């Protein structure tokens, strides 16, 4: 089960409800990342907060309401603002040069025109098992913004989901050697989900605005039968689109852009035996379905995201006991989003059924 929170009002009101009603999930996140930062980075929580504060000036210029929402979460959960800021900058802190570099993983996929009429995106999210207890399903209605349905970790204001305008986001972490003090990745994901179009979404993560590197698979359906998915790899040096020219996309956790490779060094030490193999397997599954003229829909995505070929380093990921401890990830959740129909399906863990998450019609905000 995943806790659902319906949030509305001002940024501070949205944050306060998140923090108060999701307090246990926020506390779980704080415990997880304090342990990870110390165990793998040799960074104390106070040091992590200092690193997070380096981003504050950029965030205030980027979107002051994000600061207000994080303040609201802190007030609601009874913790310091810096604690919540640190959760939202956790990817950038994980990518410091001190200690072992680590980051979460996943496999993302998209199918759109001309292969099918709908635009469908989906992914697994692979991470440390303890964060299963931190998951929240947020239904957010902020003033003058689209309504958002998003799966996130307690205390983190941006992650994976879609909005009422037809913009959807799947997300892959990339591990590179350079970062800045600009906008943390998870705030970039929220900016995408605050957008009314694909073009607006791209403008929020382009031009070196984002502090670290990641793959943003951004789908969009305008509600009139027109849809498209694009996959910009985002970096402090700007973006580059990869794949997608034939109506399908797949991405994992290594840099694909030849342009970005000239500016960044890929530090994913398991890219050859994990990330690249998952990407090749995702490509293979999609190509096989296209070649056999299979009718591709949400059920097809369920099969793809449940694939255990090359287990434990499969699309549906299991812990690899032979990997370094900080890379022993497993699939925490999998999500399928049909942007044309404004509906999504979620599975927590590696087994069981995908259940529809109908947050936007359950409650009228």
> Gyration radius, to the nearest Å?
19 Å
The backbone outline, from C-alpha atoms, is: globular
Q: With helices defined by DSSP (H or I, 4 residues minimum), what is the helix count?
A: 13
The helix/strand series, from N terminus to C terminus, equals EHHHHHHHEEEEEEHHEEEEEHHHEEEH
Q: Could you say what the CATH architecture is?
A: 4-Layer Sandwich
* Main beta-sheet strand count, sense and barrel state: 9 strands, mixed
CATH overall fold name: Penicillin V Acylase, Chain A
Portion in strands:
15-25%
Proportion in helices:
25-40%
Distance between the termini: 23 Å
Give the integer mean of the pLDDT values.
95
- Low-pLDDT runs of 5+ residues are none
The tally of beta strands, per DSSP, is 15
Number of domains: 1
> Would you identify the CATH H-level superfamily?
Penicillin V Acylase, Chain A
> What is the structural class?
alpha+beta
User: What is the level 1 CATH name?
Assistant: Alpha Beta
InterPro entries: C45_proenzyme-like, Peptidase_C45, Peptidase_C45_hydrolase
Organism: Siminovitchia fordii
Domain Peptidase C45 hydrolase: 117-351
Protein name: Peptidase C45 hydrolase domain-containing protein
């Amino acid at each position: 089960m995943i806790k659902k929170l319906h949030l509305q009002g001002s940024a501070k009101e949205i944050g306060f409800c998140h923090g108060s009603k999701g307090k246990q999930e926020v506390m779980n996140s704080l415990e997880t990342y304090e342990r990870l930062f110390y165990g793998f980075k040799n960074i104390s929580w106070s040091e992590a907060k200092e690193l997070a504060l380096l981003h504050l000036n950029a965030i205030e210029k980027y979107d002051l309401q994000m600061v207000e929402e994080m303040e609201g979460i802190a007030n609601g959960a009874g913790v310091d603002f810096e604690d919540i800021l640190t959760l939202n900058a956790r990817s950038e802190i994980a990518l410091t040069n001190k200690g072992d570099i680590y980051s979460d993983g996943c496999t993302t996929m998209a199918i759109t025109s001309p292969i099918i009429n709908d635009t469908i995106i989906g992914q697994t999210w692979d991470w440390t098992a303890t964060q299963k207890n931190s998951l929240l399903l947020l239904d957010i209605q902020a003033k003058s913004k689209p309504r958002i349905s998003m799966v996130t970790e307690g205390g983190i204001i941006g992650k994976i989901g879609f909005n009422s305008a037809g913009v959807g986001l799947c997300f892959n972490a990339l591990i590179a050697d350079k970062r800045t003090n600009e906008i943390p990745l998870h705030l970039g994901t929220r900016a995408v989900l605050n957008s009314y179009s694909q073009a607006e979404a791209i403008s929020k993560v382009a031009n070196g605005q984002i502090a670290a590197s990641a793959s943003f698979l951004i789908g969009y359906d305008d509600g009139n039968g027109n849809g498209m998915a694009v996959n910009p790899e985002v970096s402090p040096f700007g973006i580059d689109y990869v794949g997608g020219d034939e109506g399908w996309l797949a991405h994992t956790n290594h840099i694909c852009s030849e342009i970005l490779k000239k500016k960044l060094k890929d530090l994913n030490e398991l890219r050859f035996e994990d990330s690249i193999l998952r990407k090749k397997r995702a490509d293979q599954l999609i190509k096989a379905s296209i070649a056999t003229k299979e009718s591709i829909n949400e059920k097809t995505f369920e099969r793809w995201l449940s694939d255990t070929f090359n287990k434990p380093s499969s699309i549906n990921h299991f812990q690899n006991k032979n990997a370094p401890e900080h890379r022993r990830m497993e699939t925490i959740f999998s999500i399928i989003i049909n942007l044309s129909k404004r509906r999504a399906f979620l599975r927590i863990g590696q087994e069981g059924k995908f259940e529809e998450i109908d947050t936007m019609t359950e409650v009228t905000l």
